[in-house]
Amino acid sequence: MTMSNLLIALLAILVVWFLYRRTIQVPATIDLEATDRELHAHVILDGVEVNEGDEVLVHGAPTHIALNEKRTMTTRATVSKASLPRRMWERVMGRTRITELYEVGFEG
Questions:
Q1: Which of 84, 80, 89 shows the shortest CA–CA distance to 22?
Q2: Which residue in 47, 71, 83, 101 could disulfide with 32, CB within 3.0 to 4.6 Å?
Q3: Tens digit of pLDDT for each residue in 17-34?
Q4: Bridge partner list, 39
Q5: Quick one: the chain helix, strand, coil %, rounded to 5?
Q6: Dihedral in degrees, nearest 10, Cα atoms 46, 44, 97, 20
Q7: For residue 15, is pLDDT > 90?
Q8: What pLDDT was estimated at residue 17?
Q9: Rounded distance, CA 8 to CA 79, Å?
Q10: Any alpha helices (H) in the chain, and if so which ranges?
Q11: Are the beta carbons of 79 and 49 closer than 8 angstroms?
């Protein structure tokens, strides 16, 4: 095997490792509130910790809630765990992208 073929094979292995995601089905609790004092939607995942690069899809979540309503329900969620290189990449890029949150403009 030549050196260029070895580098291409190594690069292919790294790309597959970077893109690989392991999926887990977990129970989840959804807490919704739309009152004059609070407006929030929280999801609590049971038995899994979410890290950088992970994706969460909550199944069966309501699309809206009426005003002055509180609702708590249990459902399922699919968590796609990021690989180690993806997690490190997201950690580094997250620190550089945080400045996007600071862009504030004032017109007078």
A1: 80
A2: 71
A3: 888 889 999 999 999 999
A4: 34
A5: 35, 35, 30
A6: 30
A7: no
A8: 86
A9: 31
A10: 3-19, 84-97
A11: no
Locate 16 and state its tokens.
């597959």
Contacts of 44 (CB under 8 A, 6+ apart): 28, 29, 31
Q: How many CB atoms lie within 10 A of CB 83?
A: 16
Every domain of the chain and the residues it spans: 23-96
CA–CA separation, 22 vs 54, rounded Å? 10
pLDDT over 80 (residue 98): no
* 25 vs 79: CA distance, rounded Å: 6
The half-sphere exposure of 44 on its side-chain side, counting CA atoms within 13 A, is 8
Q: Is the pLDDT of residue 48 over 90?
A: yes
In this structure, the chain runs to a length of: 108
3-state secondary structure 33-50: EECCCCEEEEEEECCCCC
Report the C-alpha gap between 89 and 91 in whole angstroms: 5
